[in-house]
């Protein structure tokens, strides 16, 4: 039994991935399954991925980014070279956890894992679990002992699409969940679909789908196959609070993640089963470590989140004005009746006009003046107050007021439009939206 792991991640593993992953998809091997649907022609869709997904208003996914292939590959290889040592004290098998390396490796003795050919999604799930995922789980636990509290949870709940897609989650063990906060820990969901349901062409359409159309009419604008797949993955991940995901047909592998506010997605290119530098095993190791929060792995970019403004509609009912019980004819001295200074600079005609305008406002259905006018005010009182209180530019009161006001760099600027609002803080590194706190100093260029 092998006691070291470098060969799992060496260049030789790229050659071994071909006999490990390829046979199940090879036409010769699949002939044993007489009931299996025929594989689609190259560059064509299967039209069999009829997931029960339609546009919904609650689905807030807006933009899907693609992680640059060269950056993804280089980061995965660098991460493995940095953290994977030459040898480990533990062996390839952990009898306590019931784990072992199942992928054949050159010059190492690895027991054969015999799994029958399949013609349904359950069999494909067994191939994915027993070969690549079982090996990667053991290696992640071996290299990062703190992840031994994590396990693969296979969900066997009833799903209307269970004949088309299955999923299981890489997450902390349920026995470790002692509070509500524990259910919000990072996790990753692996989605499995047969290769005769999702063709290589449909995987390419999946990763190049830049946006998800908003809901209008399901009959006029139904989702296409790759859009239904995006909707299914988003729905399952948000229900499980799983920001990380992997999509595989066993022929092709896609590694993705959702932003904190669930409005953006990030996906890698399609990794073929026989890809090299990095291999599928290396990519899985890198993504498992990233989803587990291992320092130095890939992190989900922070994005700005625009939130829609809430519109409040106030209904104003017209009120009936009751007859006045007063016998005042409104012809007396308004100034004396209101308690105002009789020596005011405002004339009696102006005050009578104001009274008439107020009456018109009360009688108006909208409560607004019928003929708005700009009144000329005598500002001599302001000058007298400034002179009497000594509130010049150099007065102590004005100096205290200037000292209390924030500097221009500290002023909060709020930009509001008819569709969205976002608060930005000048000269500060933080941008705050309704759900996501973004650090503008993080200049990410690893996705487009």
Automatic annotation (TrEMBL):
Domain of life: Eukaryota
Protein name: Uncharacterized protein
Organism listed in the record: Grifola frondosa (Maitake)
